[in-house]
Every structure is written in structure tokens, then in C-alpha cells.
Design goal:
globular, about 25% strand, eight-stranded antiparallel β-sheet, about 15% helix, disordered C terminus, 38 strands, about 725 residues, alpha+beta, 9 helices, seven-stranded antiparallel β-sheet
């Protein structure tokens, strides 16, 4: 894995998990040509594109804008996904729960639990129960607790809380683990994971619908990677540079136009409004408090357009007992030190609760847009013009142009926020509104003018490389792969056919899983013909006997703990050819594959010992360790041995740590043949066979041993017959 990142290393985790460093995202800037570019701001923030709207830009560092991400992570609702490919919808609905657990959203009330949070949710639920409409053309469908990716409570006694989710630590640990594994053999060339910072990818070399090279600059110096010199001929490319930059790279590298549909069309973000009010504590059923509290909720609904069409919206509602007009200030500060904590607590307002209603409305996407259109699109600037390019290629040009329906919905969104806030009051004077530099007793006369937010500061750009089932009307397929390029994928909201009403983070992370699955699938070796796959991501047909377990990582099984056996319960096999791949982490790892194993449920429950004397183990042990004699290189216990029965003829075929080996085990009658990495290493005929039929089992030998298995396939064989259909389930 080669990760090319345009920025330099900045922080190991989310910025809100760190003390105050002054690295917050800067304000937006309008950049229509190079000489208006403000350059790097706040350490890492730059604007790589040109646009008709102000933008904050990108954070040039590993992790990028995700290090500054606010944490809101709602799901897209069924109505948001109506126009999406069915496969993508099904994948999201299946994987949303796991991704929510990974980033800390599943326990929604954890970060905000307390009387204020309870009161805000109760009051909004009461409003929703009283009516299903905020305005005649704006429905109020559901109120839920705020889905913010923060873990505030510790997961156990004596443990620190997780704080804001960040993939940064996992990224760095993975790279360092990989380095450590490679250096056990003192061969850095075997590393499998590289992060190259300060690496700007200019374009991808497209040869007949396949990426075969990458042009880039490293520390300002031009470089080119190409297959097979320093890129694998089987390389898979993932564009994950954000919607606009990924689109720029695709347009530079392999532009495609399918009739009226072309890359860069369908550009969307969110129509956003920000209304801040304050509500009397008494109206919320709250007395004076001595604890600085915050609360939050998400309000969802639908807006009807003048032409009868509908679009989704939601309000992010955040409340704070802190004085002032910014309820989010403390929430996004995080990790206050001891000195700051006292100041925060002393800043509590005894009479009021400040609440922000941040509206996010769905924006129209025009899949037929192109330069000259009146709707939104992304294209390239004139690279030959020194005010438009970066010296090596064109920049992206971003054209934001909301439609009349967008503006109509935007105004209704702003008015709805004012109406919803007003319903939290119980009597006159309970609600005040922040505009014109202060608190006002009446709502703004023009809510849209007073609360409208810029299009370019949401970081929710989406849609320009949208997915679909039909290559004639979409750019990518449901797995995120470009229809017209066999080994290039997109990660992120550029894939969205519609932007929906929700922040794109959760959905983008879930789709990244689908891309991972697709990449793994593309790199799978071709299976044996007419063979049956015993493990395809589910352990429904397998059972664990003994201690330990097996970790599932897509199509890989990894031993954890032990000793024990994971055995295939669905069928037993007599004569067969078993093929699989395996690899180990270190020389002290130990495992094996048992064949012709008896039904372990018929013995003492959870006891796998019957397999030792009644079946055969094909050994995996790089040391060939004899635990009784406490010595290594025992032939009967080395890789390829039929354990304690017959030694392999060669012990130099096995590959080193974290390299896949292939076993082919052929069991016909009382003869067992073992082929390791295409070399026959064991051919044994048992005069008194232990068993001629049984199950297949994988061993986890001891706690700490890490052996992985994949592509476990079996083909039943009848002696004297060269081909036979796969064995049927009894």
C-alpha cells in the first residue's frame, strides 16, 4: 500500500483531542486566480482550486480535513437514498451500524448526557408530537439525539475516554508495525505500507483503460512511477483527495463524456443556515445550574418545492449554558486544561441557554451540467495561463450556481429554523434572537438574509464522480470504481448520486469499506476450477472447539488465542484436494490444518483433543519447534510435515513473515500429498489410516500466535476420475 499525501505530518490525532494549538480552520477566501491565493494559513490550510465562491480549502497533512471534522455523523435516510444504486443502498444499511461503533456514534447521548441535553430533546420531541409540519410546505419527521462521533465516558474503570474519532493513530501504528515486521528479516524492501508526505499527484497515466503510472512531485521535484518498474502491474488506485481535487485528477488523467453526462457535473453541497437564539431556562424546565452543560439533537424533515418535487433537510441543534452567542465554542474546544476549566465554569449563564439551529438543506444536482451551464459544475482552468495553473497542470475550477428551487428551499429552511426556535418558548420573552450584533426580542424580518451561510464553508462538496448501475448515465459503479478504468476507484462524497440532507462523513466512511472489499476482490488469485469456497466472510458453517477464536478480516481468518480448532461443520470429506493460502507474523507463530477430523460435537463439549489421535495435521511452524524436547528444527514438526507422522522432504520452501504461502493437500484413500508453494514436500501412504473421512479444521495453537488463512477451497475427488462436480451438502 502506497499512500501519497500532499501535505506534511502535522498531528497524530484529531485537533480537538489536543490542547489549544491555534490550528483551527481559517475563514473562507475567494480565489479566482493565482494572484488572489492567500497561500498556506494556520499551518496547513490551502486552497488548491479556483472558484466563484469563497472556500476554506483543504488541510495539507495526513488526515487532511478529517483532523478538523466537527463529528456530526447522521445516516442518510431511505428518502435520501432513493436515487442511489440498490447495491450501494444495501451495503450502507448493512454497514452503518459497524461504522457507527467504530467512530463513537452508536452511543449518541454519551458526550452530551445531562439535564440540559435531556431537556432540549424532550422539548423538541414535544414540538414534533404536536405537529408534523413547521410550515405548510416543511414537514418535521423525526427528532433524534445528536449523532456526534465523540466518546466522552471511559470504556472501563481506569481507562481514558476515546474523545473524537481519528484514523491517524491507526494509520501510524499500522505503518510502524509493518516496519517492525520487515526489520525482523532486516529487509526494508519487503515493507507493505508506505506513507509519502509532501507528494503532489499531478496526473495518472491511463493506458487502454488501466492506470499504469503516476506523475507527481515530491518535495517540489518531479517524479514518475510506472508499472512494472516501481508499480505493480496489478496495482489498484484509489482517489481520496476530496471531491474537488479527486475530480481534478480524474479530469486530468482520464476524462470521459458519455453523451450529456461528464465528469464534474452533478456538483452539490448543502444549503446552510445558522440561527442562534437563547431560551430562558425556566421555559426548558431547568433551574440554575453549577455545571457548564451542553445538549444537542438532530431534527429531520422534508421541504416541498414550488414544482411539487421534494428534498430533505435537517437541523443540527446544539445548546450550551455558557454565556455568549456561540453555543459550539466549548464543544469544539475540547480538552480544557485545569486553568481553563475554572474560567469555563464561571462563564455559565444562570438565566439563559444559547441554542444554534444549523440548517442543512439538500441541493439540486445537474448531471448534464458543463462549462457554460447555469447550474453547478467542476471543470479545469486553463493550465497554460500562469494565473490559472500550478506550473505543471491546470487547477480545478468550481462553479457554484444554486437553482431557483435551491433558493426557494433555502428560504424555507431559514424561516423554519425561526419557527422551530420560537416554539421552545412558553410565554412572551422566553426566546431571543442573535442578529445585528446583539440579542433581539423579535425574530429577524428576513430570516434568509440574517442566517444564510456560504456554500463553500460546509466541506460537504459531493457528486461530481457519481455512482450508478448504468455506465451511460454515471461515472462510477456501485463499488466506487470508474466504469471506464479497470483499476481506479474513488473514496468520498464525490461518489454520491444525491447529496441528501445529512453530513457526508458517516456515509463516506461506510463507502470506503465497500471500496476496500472491491479492491481485495480484484486482487484475489484465480481459484482452482470446480472447487468449493469454504470461507467467504461468514463463519455460519464453522464452529470453534477449545480456547481462542478467529478474527474475520473480509476474506481472511486470523488466529487469536488458543489452543483450539475452528472446524467446518457443514460437510465431511473423504477424497479431496484442499487448497488455501496462509502467512504468519513471526517465527514463534504456530498453526496447522487438520483433515479428516471427527465430529467434535460427539465428544466432550468444546473439547478438540479427539482430533489429535483420530485425524491428520498438516503442520505450519517456521521453527519446527518440539516443545517436549525444547528444541527447534524437528523435521516431524516443521512446516509441511504430517505432524509427528511423516517429515517433509524440504524445509526451505516456506516464505518469510507476512508473505502468503500456498498449500495444496491431496487426500486420496490412505495417501496424503502436501505441496507447498508449487513444490511437493510430502507424499505419505498410511498403512493403518487413522480415518478415511472427516471434517476440515484450522488450528490456533497458542495465545499470541498470529497465523492468517484465506482462499480456503476444496474439490472432492473420486479415485480414477479426473473431474467431478463439487461435493453436495448431505
Amino acid at each position: 500500500m502506497l499512500l501519497l499525501d500532499a501535505g506534511g505530518y502535522l498531528a497524530p490525532t484529531h485537533l480537538q483531542n489536543l490542547p489549544h494549538l491555534g490550528l483551527n480552520a481559517p475563514d473562507t477566501a475567494l480565489v479566482t486566480r493565482n494572484d488572489l491565493d492567500p497561500g498556506t494559513r494556520n499551518g496547513v490550510w490551502g486552497i488548491p482550486w479556483h472558484s466563484n465562491e469563497p472556500f476554506t480549502g483543504l488541510a495539507y497533512c495526513p488526515g487532511g480535513r478529517s483532523l478538523f471534522w466537527g463529528g456530526w455523523s447522521p445516516r442518510l435516510m431511505p428518502a435520501d437514498l432513493d436515487a442511489w444504486p440498490k447495491d450501494a443502498r444495501d451495503f450502507l444499511n448493512t454497514n452503518y451500524p459497524d461504522v457507527e461503533r467504530e467512530i463513537g456514534v452508536q452511543d449518541k447521548a454519551d458526550y452530551l448526557s445531562g439535564p440540559l441535553n435531556t431537556a432540549i430533546n424532550a422539548e423538541l420531541q414535544a414540538v414534533a408530537a404536536g405537529t408534523n409540519a413547521i410550515l405548510p410546505e416543511v414537514s418535521l419527521d423525526i427528532v433524534e439525539e445528536a449523532p456526534i462521533a465523540v466518546q466522552a465516558n471511559s470504556p472501563g474503570p481506569g481507562l481514558f475516554s476515546f474523545d473524537k474519532f481519528s484514523s491517524g493513530p491507526m494509520l501510524l501504528e499500522s505503518i510502524r508495525d509493518d516496519i517492525a515486521r520487515r526489520w525482523t528479516s532486516n529487509d526494508n524492501s519487503r515493507r507493505r505500507f508506505f506513507l509519502v508526505p509532501r507528494c503532489h499527484v499531478i496526473r495518472l497515466q491511463n493506458n487502454g483503460g488501466r492506470i499504469t503510472g503516476i506523475d507527481l512531485t515530491y518535495n517540489g521535484q518531479f517524479r514518475s512511477l510506472s508499472a512494472p518498474v516501481n508499480l505493480s502491474p496489478d496495482c489498484q488506485i484509489v482517489l481520496a483527495a476530496g471531491t474537488i481535487e479527486s475530480t481534478r485528477l480524474a479530469l486530468e488523467s482520464f476524462p470521459i463524456s458519455r453523451g450529456a453526462y461528464s465528469m464534474g457535473a452533478n456538483f452539490m453541497a448543502h444549503l446552510r443556515t445558522n440561527l442562534t437564539v437563547r431560551v430562558r431556562r425556566s421555559a426548558l424546565g431547568l433551574g440554575a445550574s453549577t455545571t457548564l452543560e451542553q445538549g444537542g439533537a438532530i431534527v429531520r424533515g422534508e421541504i416541498k418545492n414550488p414544482d411539487g418535487s421534494k428534498r430533505r433537510y435537517h437541523f443540527q441543534v446544539l445548546a450550551s449554558a455558557e454565556k455568549g452567542s456561540n453555543p459550539e465554542a466549548t464543544m469544539w474546544t475540547m480538552v480544557p486544561d485545569i486553568d481553563l476549566l475554572r474560567n469555563l465554569l464561571s462563564n455559565e449563564d444562570p438565566d439563559w441557554v444559547a441554542i444554534v439551529f444549523r440548517g442543512l438543506g439538500e441541493m439540486d444536482g445537474d448531471k448534464r451540467a458543463r462549462p457554460g451551464s447555469t447550474t453547478s459544475f467542476v471543470n479545469l482552468t486553463n493550465g497554460a495561463d500562469p494565473l490559472q495553473g500550478d506550473g505543471l497542470s491546470a487547477r480545478a475550477w468550481v462553479q457554484f450556481a444554486p437553482t431557483p428551487n435551491d433558493y426557494a428551499a433555502w428560504r424555507k429552511l431559514a424561516t423554519s429554523a425561526v419557527e422551530l426556535a420560537g416554539r421552545l418558548g412558553k410565554s412572551a420573552g422566553d426566546v431571543e434572537y442573535w442578529y445585528n450584533g446583539g440579542w433581539q426580542s423579535a425574530p429577524p424580518a428576513d430570516p434568509f438574509a440574517a442566517t444564510k451561510d456560504q456554500l463553500g464553508n460546509t466541506h460537504h462538496e459531493a457528486g461530481t464522480l457519481w455512482m450508478g448501475d448504468d455506465p451511460a448515465t454515471s461515472i462510477t459503479g456501485p463499488t466506487g470504481r470508474f466504469h471506464h478504468v479497470s483499476n481506479a476507484y474513488v473514496a468520498g462524497p464525490a461518489l454520491f448520486p444525491t447529496v441528501g440532507s445529512a453530513n457526508p462523513s458517516l456515509t463516506g466512511l461506510a463507502l470506503a469499506r465497500q471500496i476496500s472489499v472491491a479492491v481485495v476482490e480484484a486482487l484475489k488469485p484465480a481459484p482452482l476450477p470446480r472447487s468449493k469456497l469454504l470461507y467467504a466472510g461468514s463463519l455460519a458453517d464453522w464452529q470453534m472447539s477449545g480456547a481462542g477464536s478467529f478474527l474475520q478480516v473480509y476474506d481472511i481468518l486470523e488466529s487469536v488465542g488458543g489452543p483450539g480448532l475452528l472446524w467446518y461443520t457443514r460437510e465431511s470429506f473423504s477424497d479431496f484436494v484442499l487448497e488455501f493460502e496462509w502467512q504468519y507474523a513471526s517465527r514463534t507463530d504456530n498453526s496447522g490444518v487438520f483433515i479428516r477430523v471427527p465430529n467434535l460435537n460427539s465428544s466432550t463439549p468444546n473439547d478438540w483433543m479427539a482430533a489429535i489421535d483420530q485425524s491428520y495435521e498438516i503442520q505450519i511452524d517456521p521453527r519446527g519447534y518440539n516443545s517436549e524436547a525444547k528444541k527447534e528444527n524437528d523435521p516431524l514438526r516443521s512446516t509441511g510435515a504430517i505432524y509427528n507422522i511423516n517429515a517433509p522432504t524440504r524445509t526451505d520452501i516456506e516464505k518469510g513473515p507476512w508473505q502468503w504461502n500456498t498449500f495444496v493437500i491431496e487426500a486420496i484413500g490412505n495417501r496424503i500429498k502436501v505441496t507447498l508453494n508449487d513444490v511437493l514436500v510430502n507424499d505419505f501412504t498410511d498403512a493403518k489410516p487413522r480415518s478415511l473421512r472427516g471434517h476440515i479444521a484450522l488450528q490456533n495453537h497458542h495465545d499470541g500466535s498470529k497465523v492468517q488463512f484465506r482462499n480456503i477451497r476444496i474439490k472432492s475427488v473420486v479415485p480414477g476420475v479426473t473431474e467431478l462436480p463439487v461435493a453436495r451438502v448431505a
